[in-house]
Design a protein that fits this description.
The complex is a heterotrimer of chains A (532), B (282) and C (309). Chain A contains 16 helices and 20 strands. Chain A is an alpha+beta fold and 532 residues long. In chain A, strand 4 and strand 5 form a beta hairpin. In chain A, helix 9 runs antiparallel to helix 11 and helix 15 runs antiparallel to helix 16. Chain B has ten helices and two strands. The radius of gyration of chain B is 22 Å and the shape is elongated. By secondary structure, chain C is mainly alpha-helical. Helices cover 79% and strands 0% of the residues of chain C. Classes of the chains: A alpha+beta (532), B mainly alpha (282), C mainly alpha (309). Chains in contact: A-B, A-C, B-C. The interface between B and C is large, with 52 and 66 residues.
């Protein structure tokens, strides 16, 4: 019987289908010019749970918020700040006063002209305690925020509008990253009238902004449609008539649809990755970008036994990161530090932990846990994350730690890790919001970020002190030097096991032009056009 | 609701043949589960490839290849039989114990007790099983014990109704009245005298219950709610490899075939038994 | 007529009490969940005073019986609460999904039922032959194959390789074909087998032999005479099937990306969105109860004897 089974399997193995060619379409010609028209078709695994820029803090929400709203400044194709809603700006010599002059021709999609008062309104809304915005902390450095949040003042004194086209910011302390923070979707300008009409809760699904697109339709669980905003201030843009997003596509269905030419952009499933990358027909359609991202295993320092540094260090020495990299088809590099390689201030020589299960066991014994213990790892329930989780499970079993796995949907995961005492171990990634170490070290590891993004609930006064000192510094060498010292301390304390820094891959339909993967943001579709 | 006659395959001879076929399948499954450690040298949970480069096709070292994590597929299938039989068996046993007891008590005592118990049966029956299981899975920590517990607690209704029906028809028999007159307790009458009478029906339902429990477990595992990772589970094996259709079709086909075979086997046994043990009212 | 009304009233009362029981079960389960609703609503940075205020607002400090009463009151008004994740009213979300699930469920039921009956009749006519056994085995296999596996295979074959049908999704009749077919295949066996054995029995009776001798064409024989007797238990079978259908629908919706209640429930579990989950399950239970009530009504009309029971 076993021989029969084997024969059947060899037969099945022979049924492996060769890689289908990509969908056919117009090849890139050197003399092409952008043309207007067409609908870009995208796919998504699940609905975003909000389109309100004050609330959304994940890649999915940001992708759409970028289409619907504008910020004062933005990034070009790289990490340089360029004007957006602001035509120009000035910074005072002491670095604490910013004056922005707005473009005169911006309107909301509702028709109303965008003025300085709208900018002030949007940021004050962001800071309102009732909204629980995860982005509020980035603007806590504005003067007068404390009084506003406590209810002692009706407005933020640090934001003033001396003229309908001028906004002035006053910071309580110097912040070299203020411009970068204004480029985050949190600082997007929202239409006050729309918010007041539908309420904060309603605004999540009926957003009104000044961006290149407007929300035309959202049928939950099925699709989302965006249409060109005819009042968009950049004339001639967007090229696209609209964007159509099919929701609920698994990796499987999404890839099938891409190969059949039904969607324009797709990730490459692990099953096909090796073949696709090696195939000449897919070469011109492949999109690749090294991101500023670190995937890590977070250890909750407030939950025993992870409150002991020795235990955390043991975990660091037990996990086979090379195998993890193999499981993601080699799309990335092994991580030995918190910061990713392209981040200013990255130092490959930062002391880290070698793979040494025997030493890991020794550390556990020294901590009095030689007999091992059991705990739970929370991970996003996509197949990729679960495979990584199972590999980690095996590594930890070898040192006596029994790991139970809890798969949850990604939005639920990022909610759950904020609750103290709920999640002992979690598998997450962090993508830099701006090209500065503070975006990793302060946002994720400063004690004041516990409850927002310091999901490891890590608190080290020495680290805090270094970070506080570095934060307002403008001079790069000293700034980066202090951040580096802080990182070294953090690595010693080991609240994380940094796993790898992924490289993003995507494939496009041959007709898509100008769709680029950005190092810091979801792709901008404003300048995307479709060839015939 | 009225009662429906459970029918088998029609003719005794045909039933005997199909029953035998079912037993062969079930027996093979049991053998596979029991002998798993001897049939493969690999541990189903352990990644055995030195470097992962994708699932390996069937070959010398691995008779059915390796899966998307580098684990031996034959080992996972074989030990997966253990998981299926364990979960299915435990769930079915639980359903059986609860259901038979409820059926005996309700049918024997009748009246208010019976009405109350049948109302409980209705309650469970109207809750869509899978959805109820999903809620329970959300609330309870998933473990190798809670899944069969949950399936078992939800699936006892068929046993209860069948047994109750049989008890109702057996209740007035002479030998029972005699036993009562001689002073036998209610419990003794139910379990010593009535139980053997309902046993054939229960055996049929046990076989069918196994097939149902295995199927439900596979469905739950597919949705991601079954036994915890990395315990091999056929349903989970299907959901793990959905994108590998073209690259590694055997990975997708084999676990599905395994579940189908197990369910068919127990169904054949159950429906075959119906004719062999005589017609029952369900 | 009077007996029918009494019968129906009794069934309605029973249905209501069953529904109440369901709400009780769900209420208990929901309270057992470890996540604190106040924190889910207020966010993790809220201070203890805010949390206490929210808890008081929601009435979480009141005795369980009072909370249950309030819960029932809200249910009576159609308020199923709000989703933790999106803040939308659960009743709105369910309303959006209802049509998809009904469409899938009813069409699979119809196909399975009609095809099953047809197969049952055909095999009954050829009782004992190889075709008979073959078809019976085939339907048994169809019953045993896991829906999710079959669904995946069908998508791959018909959606991707042959390109005859769409790759999952919802919108046109073509989108319905594969999911309905997948579910119907599982349904077939029960109806086919049932009709087969029952019709077969009646066929052998003298009555039929006599009718045949009189020259009544065979097809009319089957439909008019044989089937009518079998109708009562078939209707009962339908009633029992509806709850099982709901479970099958859940799996099928997940595989085919069908935007229905089943997929909603699965998503709600992994999003830890308890109000949405509880609301969806309660609604599904109510649907099943309603369907069964309709079946009972049909039953009472077809066989008046039952109303005296």
């Amino acid at each position: 019987m076993r021989a029969g089974l084997l024969a059947a399997c060899v037969l099945l193995a022979a049924c492996t289908v060769p890689l289908d060619p990509p969908p056919s379409g117009p090849p890139v010609r050197p003399d092409e010019v952008p043309r207007s028209g067409g609908t870009l078709r995208l796919g998504a695994a699940e609905d975003v749970h909000t389109l309100d820029p004050a609330i959304g803090y994940d890649t999915g929400s940001w992708a759409f918020e970028q289409m619907l709203f504008n910020t004062l400044v933005d990034y070009d194709e790289g990490t340089t700040i360029v004007p957006e809603l602001a035509a120009s700006w000035e910074v005072s010599p002491d670095g604490r006063h910013f004056t922005f002059t707005l473009r005169p021709d911006v309107r909301f999609s509702s028709g109303r002209a965008l003025a300085a008062a709208d900018v002030k309104y949007s940021l004050e809304r962001l800071l309102r305690p009732a909204l629980h915005s995860p982005g509020a902390e980035f603007f806590a450095g504005l003067a007068g925020v404390g009084d506003y949040v406590a209810g002692r003042a009706p407005e933020v004194s640090g934001i003033t509008t001396p003229a309908p086209d001028r906004v002035e910011f006053t910071l309580a302390a110097v912040d070299p990253l203020f411009l970068h923070k204004l480029a985050m979707p949190f600082a997007a300008v929202v239409d006050r009238e729309a918010v007041e009409r539908v309420g904060d809760l309603g605004f999540r699904r009926q957003p009104v902004g000044s961006g290149a697109f407007v929300l035309a339709e959202w049928v939950e669980g099925q699709r989302m449609r965006l249409a060109r905003n005819p009042l968009y201030f950049r004339s001639g843009l967007p090229y696209l008539d609209g964007i159509e997003v099919t929701v609920g596509l698994s990796d499987q269905l999404g890839w099938f649809k891409y190969q059949r030419g039904e969607i324009d952009i797709s990730g490459v499933p692990s099953a096909e990755f090796a073949r696709v990358v090696a195939d000449a027909r897919y070469q011109p359609l492949l999109l690749e970008r090294t991101t500023l991202r670190t995937q890590y295993l977070g250890l909750n320092c407030a939950m025993p036994p992870f409150d002991q540094a020795a235990v955390r260090q043991a975990l660091n020495m037990a996990i086979d990161k090379q195998r993890l990299l193999e499981l993601i088809d080699g799309r990335g590099v092994v991580a030995t530090t918190i910061l990713p390689p392209d981040m200013p201030g990255y130092d490959a020589a930062t002391p880290s932990y070698p793979l040494d299960p025997a030493a890991a066991r020794a550390r556990l014994e020294a901590a009095g846990l030689g007999q091992g213990f059991a705990t739970t790892l929370w991970a996003s329930r996509d197949e990729g994350s679960l495979r990584l989780a199972q590999s980690i499970q095996q590594d930890l079993r070898a040192i006596g730690v029994e790991l139970a796995l809890k798969p949850v949907d990604f939005p639920a995961l990022i909610e759950a890790v904020r609750h103290p005492g709920m999640v002992p171990l979690f598998l997450l990634g962090w993508e830099a919001d701006f090209p500065d170490p503070s975006n990793f070290l302060i946002v994720l590891l400063h004690s004041r970020s516990r409850g927002t993004n310091n999901n490891a609930f890590y608190a080290n006064p020495d680290v805090d002190r270094l970070l506080d000192e570095a934060e307002p510094l403008l001079e790069p060498r000293r700034r980066l030097g202090l951040f580096h010292d802080a990182e070294a301390l953090v690595m010693r304390d080991a609240p994380w096991v940094p796993l790898f820094h992924p490289v993003s891959f995507a494939v496009r339909h041959p007709r898509v032009r100008n769709y680029l993967l950005h190092p810091l943001r979801p792709s901008r579709v404003e300048t995307v056009w479709l060839a015939e | 609701m009225a009662e429906v006659a459970l029918r088998g395959f029609g003719s005794r001879q045909r039933s005997r043949r199909l029953f035998a076929a079912g037993m062969v399948i079930v027996g093979g499954l049991g053998l596979l589960a029991a002998a798993a450690p001897w049939l493969t040298s690999y541990d189903p949970d352990v990644i055995v490839v030195a470097h992962y480069t994708g699932p390996l096709p069937p070959g010398d070292a691995h008779p059915l290849g390796t899966d998307t994590l580098g684990r031996d597929v034959w080992a996972r299938l074989a030990y997966g039989a253990r998981t299926s039989l364990f979960v299915g068996g435990l769930a079915m046993t639980l359903s059986l114990c609860i259901g038979v007891t409820v059926g005996l008590v309700g049918g024997y005592f009748g009246g208010a007790v019976d009405t109350a118990l049948m109302w409980l049966v209705d309650l469970i029956l109207t809750m869509p099983t899978l959805l109820l299981l999903i809620v329970l899975a959300a609330v309870l920590p998933p473990s190798l014990l809670t899944i069969p517990l949950v399936i078992g607690v939800v699936g006892w209704t068929t046993f209860a109704r069948t047994v109750r029906g049989e008890v109702l028809s057996l209740r007035e028999r002479d030998y029972l009245l005699a036993a009562r007159a001689l002073g036998a307790s209610h419990g003794r009458i139910m379990f010593r005298h009535l139980l053997p009478g309902v046993l054939p029906g229960v055996v049929v339902l046990a076989a069918l219950g196994m097939s149902g429990a295995i199927g439900i477990d596979a469905g739950l595992s597919y949705l991601g709610l079954g036994v915890p990772l990395p315990t091999p589970s056929w349903g989970r094996m299907v959901s793990e490899v959905q994108t590998y259709f073209g690259v590694a079709p055997w990975l997708v086909v084999l676990p599905g075939v395994a579940v189908s075979l197990a369910v068919i086997g127990f169904n054949l046994v159950g429906y075959g038994l119906i004719d062999l043990l005589g017609e029952r009212r369900g | 007529m009077m007996a029918l009304v009494v019968y129906l009233t009794r069934r309605i009362i029973r249905a209501i009490t069953t529904l109440l029981g369901t709400t009780l079960i769900l209420f208990v389960l929901v309270r057992v969940v470890p996540a604190d609703p106040a924190v889910s609503i207020a966010g993790p940075k809220a201070d203890p005073e805010t949390l206490a205020a929210i808890r008081k607002d929601l009435g979480l400090d009141d005795p369980l019986a009072v909370q249950y009463g309030r819960y029932l009151g809200r249910l009576a008004r159609g308020d199923l609460g709000r989703s933790y994740l999106t803040g939308r009213r659960v009743s709105d979300v369910i309303g959006e999904r209802l049509r998809a699930t009904s469409l899938l469920g009813l069409s699979s039921l119809a196909i399975g039922f009609c095809l099953g009956m047809l197969i049952g009749i055909v095999t009954a006519a050829r009782r004992g032959s190889a075709v008979d056994v073959g078809v019976l085995i085939a339907t048994l296999v169809g019953l045993s194959i896991p829906t999710f596996w079959l669904g995946n295979v069908l998508i791959y074959l018909f959606g991707y390789r042959l390109r005859w049908l769409p790759l999952g999704g919802y919108g046109t009749l073509r989108h319905l074909v594969l999911p309905a077919a997948t579910l119907a295949i599982v349904e077939l066996f029960f109806y086919a087998r049932f009709v087969h054995t029952n019709v077969g029995g009646t066929l052998a009776s003298d009555y039929i032999r006599t009718a045949r001798a009189k020259g009544v064409p065979p097809l009319r024989l089957y439909f008019q005479h044989a089937l009518r007797n079998a109708l009562i238990p078939i209707v009962t079978l339908l009633g029992l099937d509806i709850a099982a259908l709901m479970s099958g629908v859940t799996l099928t919706e997940t595989v085919f990306n069908w935007p229905g209640l089943g997929r909603l429930a699965v998503q709600a579990v992994f999003q830890l969105d308890i109000p949405l989950l509880a609301g969806t399950v309660l609604f599904s239970a109510a649907l099943v109860l309603l369907a069964n009530l309709v079946v009972d009504l049909l039953y009472g009309v077809i066989d008046p004897r039952v109303t005296y029971g």
